[in-house]
Amino acid sequence: MVVGIFVVLLFYAIGEGVSLAINGVIPGSVIGMLLLFVALRLRIIPSESVKGFATFLTSNMALFFVPAGVGLMVAYRVLLQNWVAITVVSVVSTILVMVVVGHTHQRFEKKQQRSDELPSESNVDSSALDNSCNPLSKH
Asked: How many whole angstroms separate alpha carbon 118 and alpha carbon 85?
């Protein structure tokens, strides 16, 4: 588990360094997480080396929401002053995400159905195709 902690913190530090180099356009934690993901996918870092620490972090995920909750309580006056704008932005962005995800899912579903419906040449019965295309034929 110590190796896992070291690896995660190393990639976090590298991400922070890259973030400083690009003037903080992307947060260092995000860059570090992406670099760690790439290293794991390319098997530069064996997944077993971080598995124990990752399991520990995900099993204690609720603790990571405490600072965000405290931040909300500290900034409650700002939230009260801007609650209408925050609510409108939250509702509009939620609807927008739902619409985009829905359309994307439908497009992938249609594409999957089309690829599933394509008959292979060996399974095609030409008489069945001829009759199904003829509007005057009786079924």
From this structure: 50
